[in-house]
Amino acid sequence: MRQRLFGWARPLGLAAAAAAMIFAADVQRAEAQSGTLRVAVLNDMTNFDPMQFSTVNFFLIKNLYDSLIEYTEDGQAVPSLATGWEIGDGNTSVTVTLRDDVTFGATGSAFTAEDVAATWAKAADPTLGRNVYATMGIVRDWEVNGPHSITLNFNNPVPDRQILDLLQFTLPLEAAGIETIDTIPAGTGAYVLKERLVGQRVVLEANPNYWREGEPKMAEVEFTIFSDDASAAAALESGAVDLTYMGQSRTAVRLGNAGFQVIAGPGKLVQVFRINTTRAPFDNSEFRQAFNFLMNRAGILRVGYADLGEVTALPWAPASPAADPSFNEEFAYDIAKAQEMLAASGLSAAAMSDWRLLVNGSDEASTAISQVVQGSLAEAGINIDLDIRQGAEFIDALLSGDFHAVFGGVGNVQKFPSRLATNSIYRTANNPVFGEPHPHPRYVDAIARVDTTIGTPEEVQAAYDNLNRVMVEEAFGIATNSYETGLIVAAPNVEGFILDMDNLLVARGLSVR
Amino acid sequence: MSRKAPRRSLLALRALLRDRGALVSLGFLSILVAMAAGAGLLPIEPMRQNILHALEAPSASNWFGTDELGRDILARVIYGARTSLQTAGGAVAIAACIGIPMGLIAGYYGGWRDAVLMRMVDVLLALPGILFAMAIIAVLGRSQMAALVAVGITGIPNFARITRAQVLSLRSRDFVTAVEAFGASSQYAMFRTVLPNAWSPILVQAIVLASLAILLEAALAFLGIGVPPPTPSWGEMLRTGKNYLHEAPHYAILPGVALTLTILAFDTLGRALARVLEDRHDSGAGLAAAKEEGGR
């Protein structure tokens, strides 16, 4: 009798317990996703296309989109939207297996291999591919094997690391949303767009169906656009925001000393003194090579970046497989040695001074480090003026090659070495500064050798060494220092930082205690 | 007549020196001009970098401290005075050389010449000075000469209007009529008879415009479109110094003090001169107009 009585009660109890657990989980999720993370940024975004890989969009990309794979801080590839990847024999293909539990945040549609195929089709389009187009140069085609499997085929054998870079650089878009991607985000990210007021703020809200367990932590992320670094820092100090993103190194050091958290990711940029070798006197190679010794790298790092970074004579971050610190000693700041090389150039004093250094007047660090170089050149007997331009005028000159020399940061310096060629001055084809044919064929060949060397570690290292030597001898880009971009300065009660390989802001793990 | 002029000037100078504010201002400006003019003789190097000693506080070796490149701020303030005073002097010269003849012709001849010239002045006045200067620099490029020309052009309307007002009040006076009756040419009457009697408010205007020119040059440099670095400029020092307010407040404050004192000195001197000349000449309306123009 008793057993019969409890016979119907048991399933009821189990159902109640299950309901309680679901309710508790909902409550826990609701509690976990409460509150707003307030972030100060210094520039408004330009559009929602992750292929528009510009620093002004860095605060949004990894919150609205996920990559196929991710890198850990030390460069190890880990699964993300791809659960696995298998590089085919001869390194001419890679087959990627995708998660089957992912949906797009804005529409709720399931994420499939067709979306990845559509994303690659956009990336391979010269117009639509934007910053990813150059990376797709190694790709021949792709084939969808099933809803959650896709194979990418390459033109030639491709080194493993370059394949991984491509997967990490792939942020799948919803196929149906590609046409409107500039204005309407279509990703699988932890957050979806809630509101945007141009020039004022961008508000994201948690994606309710996000696939990573327990993330995102906050219900909303509100990005407020500040006109300058000092205002953003003041907002952080007054408690009006929880963190600042992409502020200046000097401010970060000051705020760090005041007890705020300073978070620097692995994706540094390298400052490069870019030289237009098609213009006199820089068409003289001895004259150019002297600049390897005219860079007061330690001074530039101190004045421009408050010593946050490292001096480097090569355009690599320390994590790059091609990094070689021995070049820093070989090409250390040495006015006397530079003067010997200048004399060997055969140029007159007047010819050596007959050029101007283009400066980004909107960037205090650029103005300061350009003056450091101006001072060093004066010591060596080269007296030049600064050509200071603002905003769009400077960008136009920089990208069209309308300069003799200019400082400019280069990215992708921690990834596969040939990714350096995505930066304008280092492009091997369609170089906007040098035009066609490329005036430095040794450099073009060295990049090609790096791209095609798939042998023993010694052979690969030899290709890197060759590239490094060619770059200092051709001397069209003189690296000076690595520096932080995407610096995060946060209040002490913010936790859960996830560092991105490219220093993009990843908010899904962040919470405010 | 020619013997009276210097005596009147001397009397005006004596009266000016009796004004305590004017005396202090004149003393300050004299020292400033002397230092700016003789900066090359002083043992200072405004361009010399010493990065290891960047952003140091004022000390015995660097009285005003050092900037972000380790340069001596006092040296740069002194050379910055040279930049400011050169810009002010050049701007006043441009404004006076164009504005005074415009006002003279408009006031003397009247009619269509007056209408055309004054409408041109109205057009210049309708444009905010700093925006107009920015537009000129956008065309000419960023240099001290561009800043000087830009500031000078913005001062033209003030001189033109003051001069015209003076000429209109003098035009019908007996001594002008007498000169014309003796058969003097228009040019002679304008430049040898009317203009020498109209100089008082114009002088005040020149001093007031000098202070405005210094302020405008500093504002352009602060906005990043003035004299390009590394040429020392007070506005440029303020612009860069504000980035280091937490670490090195002296970097922005000391050039700011120099700028403030200089503008204050010019303004005080201009006002005192206007008072003195108002007392000594029967040209109160013109001087009042000069002060009003200066306050624009």
Secondary structure layout:
The complex is a heterodimer of chains A (513) and B (296).
Chain A: H1 2-32, E1 36-41, H2 58-64, E2 69-71, E3 77-79, E4 82-87, E5 93-98, H3 113-123, E6 139-146, E7 149-154, H4 160-168, E8 191-197, E9 201-206, E10 220-225, H5 229-238, E11 243-245, H6 249-257, E12 261-263, E13 269-275, H7 285-290, H8 297-305, H9 326-330, H10 335-344, H11 349-352, E14 356-360, H12 364-379, E15 385-389, H13 391-400, E16 405-410, H14 441-452, H15 457-474, E17 477-483, E18 488-490, E19 494-495, E20 511-512
Parallel strand pairs in A: 1-10, 1-11, 14-15, 14-16
Antiparallel strand pairs in A: 2-3, 4-5, 5-7, 6-7, 8-9, 9-10, 11-18, 12-18, 13-16, 13-17, 19-20
Chain B: H1 4-18, H2 20-37, H3 73-109, H4 111-126, H5 129-140, H6 144-171, H7 174-181, H8 186-194, H9 199-222, H10 234-241, H11 249-280, H12 284-294
Helix pairs in contact in B: 2-3, 2-11, 3-4, 3-6, 3-9, 4-6, 5-6, 6-9, 6-12, 7-8, 9-10, 9-11, 9-12, 10-11, 11-12
What does this structure look like?
The complex is a heterodimer of chains A (513) and B (296). By secondary structure, chain A is of the alpha+beta class. Chain A folds into three domains: 37-44 and 189-266 and 486-512, Periplasmic binding protein-like II (D-Maltodextrin-Binding Protein, domain 2, 3-Layer(aba) Sandwich), CATH 3.40.190; 66-175, Dipeptide-binding Protein, domain 1 (Alpha-Beta Complex), CATH 3.90.76.10; 269-483, Roll (Dipeptide-binding Protein, domain 3), CATH 3.10.105.10. Chain A has helices at residues 2-32, 58-64, 113-123, 160-168, 229-238, 249-257, 285-290, 297-305, 326-330, 335-344, 349-352, 364-379, 391-400, 441-452, 457-474, and strands at 36-41, 69-71, 77-79, 82-87, 93-98, 139-146, 149-154, 191-197, 201-206, 220-225, 243-245, 261-263, 269-275, 356-360, 385-389, 405-410, 477-483, 488-490, 494-495, 511-512. In chain A, helix 8 runs antiparallel to helix 12 (364-379) and helix 14 (441-452) runs antiparallel to helix 15 (457-474). Chain A is globular and about 95 Å long. The termini of chain A are far apart. The relative contact order of chain A is 0.15. The model of chain A has no long low-confidence stretch (mean pLDDT 91). Chain B is mainly alpha-helical and 296 residues long. Chain B has one domain (62-294): MetI-like (MetI-like fold, Orthogonal Bundle). Helices cover 74% and strands 0% of the residues of chain B. In chain B, helix 10 (234-241) packs antiparallel against helix 11. Chain B starts with a helix and ends with a helix. The mean pLDDT of chain B is 87. Classes of the chains: A alpha+beta (513), B mainly alpha (296). Chains A and B meet through helix 8, helix 12 and strand 15 of A and loops of B.
